[in-house]
Amino acid sequence: MVEQATAFAPGRVNLIGEHTDYNGGLALPFAIRLGVTVRAARADSAVVVVHAADLGAHDTFELLSPRPVSGWRAFPRGAVAELRAAGVPLAGVRLEISGTVPQGSGLSSSAALEVALCLALLAVSDAPIPDPLPLARICSRIENEWVGAPTGLLDQLASICGERDRALLIDFGSLEVTPVPLVLPGHRLVTLDSGERHSHASGDAGYAARRAECERARDLLGVETLSQATEAAASRLPDPLRSRALHVIGENERVRQTVAALHDVDAPRVGELLDASHASLRDRFEVSTPAVEATVGLLRRAGAVGTRLIGGGFGGHVLGLLPTDAVAPDGAIEVRPESGASVA
Ligand code: GLA
To answer: Is the dihedral of CA 65, 68, 72, 73 positive or negative?
Structure first.
């Protein structure tokens, strides 16, 4: 019987394919080195005690009936409730959370926390680890139902399925995940914080509003997902639905072209596609901000051959593809594809 377990789940960078996951489209994320660690120790009681080491904060709740709360406490409560709802026979447990991925900054600290919590709880309950897709769905329910952020499955799948030196081509229509080598000799990827924090929980209008607009566009076009719409049909929608739909359709095509450019090891072409994705997120999807644009400018002036905002937008980190000999701006973090979540 496992008495103690330590789980680690990474954050992610999305190379390209933004706001496509909840539209049945394509994305190309990879797991990174930064992430969240959860230590779990089985306890002989019907309570869960949680220590958030980085925040110096605690929570205690009933194993059988966690009540909803806001803030970080929603994550462990949601993890316990959703795993129990999925039929996992959880025992009383003490949890300690610590992390290296900055919160609310577009590197998926939320998904890393959800995945690490679930893996640690499963291990001390002697329960088998579900396959990636059902595990990602449980984690996503924590975010949707307990945290209140209506996000898709991109971040959780990237954190769970990450592979060293490979990005993951995720088709959200079929939910197929295909590793794609991400090696661009003479170049490196960095992210730079715009300094602006975001929250995708329902109180924050931006992300939820874009998602609702995509659903309206889909319904008007009479398709199952917006990714099935044609450019010609989308062009006839009234604005802003027209612009939102054209972003999604164009972004899917850019993901396909990025996979081809990676196959050809063509870094300048990858850079062009990153720039085109950013322009579409700024002008058609309207999720950029002055702080994000200033950060894009810093990376360009440092010599980036491509830059784009990553994640939902409205702040967070900006990705840059830099020639190896270019000097990255102060504070930039080098990122490369790493392995996905694990528990020991
Ligand atoms: C956030 C969400 C993801 C995805 C991206 C945009 O990171 O958590 O599900 O929608 O925004 O691509």
So the answer is: negative
% of the chain residues with pLDDT over 90: 94
59 a catalytic residue: no
% helix, strand, coil for the chain, step of 5:
40, 25, 35
Interacting residues of 73 by C-beta distance below 8 A, sequence separation 6+: 50, 59, 61
Q: Which amino acid is at 129?
A: I
Whole-number Å distance between alpha carbons of 40 and 174: 34
Parallel, antiparallel or unpaired: strands 26-27 and 176-181 = unpaired
Tokens of 244: 């939102």
Of the candidates 155, 264, 266, 325, the residue annotated as catalytic is: 155
| Nearest ligand 1 atom to alpha carbon 20 | 12
Answer for the pair 21, 33: CB distance below 8 angstroms, yes or no.
Answer: no
Is 114 touching ligand 1 by the criterion CB < 6 Å? no
Q: State the pLDDT at residue 104.
A: 78
Here the tokens at position 138 are 């449980």
Amino acid at 59: D
Tell me how far apart the alpha carbons of residues 146 and 142 are, in angstroms, rounded to a whole number.
5
Ligand 1, atom nearest to 312 Cα: 11
- Residue 317 Cβ < 6 Å to ligand 1: no
Please tell me the distance between residue 338's alpha carbon and the centre of ligand 1 in angstroms.
Answer: 19
Only one residue has tokens 């491509």, namely 306
Query: Which residues, other chains included, contact 176 with Cβ-Cβ below 8 Å and sequence gap of 6+?
Result: 170
pLDDT of residue 103: 83
Cα of 149 to ligand 1 centre, how many Å?
Answer: 10
